[in-house]
Amino acid sequence: MSISPKDILNQNNNLNKRIDIDKINLNNVSVDDLRYNGKNYDEYINLMSLLENVSACQVSDAFNGISRRSGVIQSIKPINNQKVFGSIFTAETTSDDWGTSALAIDEASEGDILFFKVDSEDKAIWGELASTCAKDNGIKAVVIYGSARDLDALLYIDFPVFASNFCPNAGSALGLGSLNETIEIEGFKINPGDFFIGDESGIVVIPQELFTKTMVAALEVKIKESNIINEIDDGKSLAEIVGLK
């Protein structure tokens, strides 16, 4: 692959640059722009400027507006109340098998979010050691339809964890699960590469084919809510703003 002068210049671009909400341009943005690849500087910066300023609630509202679905899996909750977003790497295993967690950490790419489907909540498949290793490997977060443990550490580690339960016991390092295949949770199909956002309110999963439409809608939701807050600050009541009075 040839390298153009523009590619060389992009190496010096500031990846921490952010754009005001009312100036964000999401034209041509795709789920691939969650990662900077040396050629997508504008798309990456605009997308980060949006996602760092919207909540899981706002993304859910946006997704519901275009699909009549919330994208929410209600049983999975934040363990340590940290916000994260990114693309999903899936895994499926049993609660007896925390070894699949270790394999997933090695197989996932930097910037991925691990999403586990576990057959029960009887034993934990994730804890302090897995979080530490995943963080060192550049993985952004873990989501578990099952149990985590070591909350004494997870509550303070700089690594987002979401799970449907927690318990102190664990299984064995069997490594018998499947990696990066479609999983289904409570009737919700989740594919590798789908988009995830989670924060203190819960989690939202967006199919990658609806990512761009959802991001555009999320920007509209964010701007609309910002305008409502401005009207409230100017003295209007919420009932007045939404037309109830």
Note down, in words, how this protein is organized.
The chain is an alpha/beta fold. The protein has 2 domains: 5-69 and 221-241, no CATH class; 77-205, 3-Layer(bba) Sandwich (Glucose Oxidase, domain 1), CATH 3.50.30.40. It is built from 8 helices and 11 strands. The strands form 2 sheets. Strands 1, 2, 3, 4, 5, 6, 7, 10 and 11 form a 9-stranded mixed β-sheet that branches. The protein has a two-stranded antiparallel ribbon with strand order 8-9. Strand 8 and strand 9 form a beta hairpin. The radius of gyration is 19 Å and the shape is globular.
Structure class = alpha/beta
- Total domains: 2
The general outline is: globular
What is the radius of gyration?
19 Å
Strand content: 15-25%
| Helical content band | 25-40%
Structural descriptors:
11 strands, 2 domains, two-stranded antiparallel ribbon, nine-stranded mixed beta sheet, 245 residues, Glucose Oxidase, domain 1, globular, alpha/beta, single chain
Helices, strands, pairings?
Elements: H1 5-10, H2 41-51, H3 56-67, E1 77-78, E2 84-93, H4 99-107, E3 113-118, E4 124-126, H5 128-136, E5 141-148, H6 151-154, E6 161-166, E7 178-179, E8 183-185, E9 188-190, E10 195-199, E11 202-206, H7 211-233, H8 238-241
Parallel strand pairs: 2-3, 3-5, 4-5, 5-6
Antiparallel strand pairs: 1-6, 2-7, 2-10, 8-9, 10-11
Helix pairs in contact: 3-7
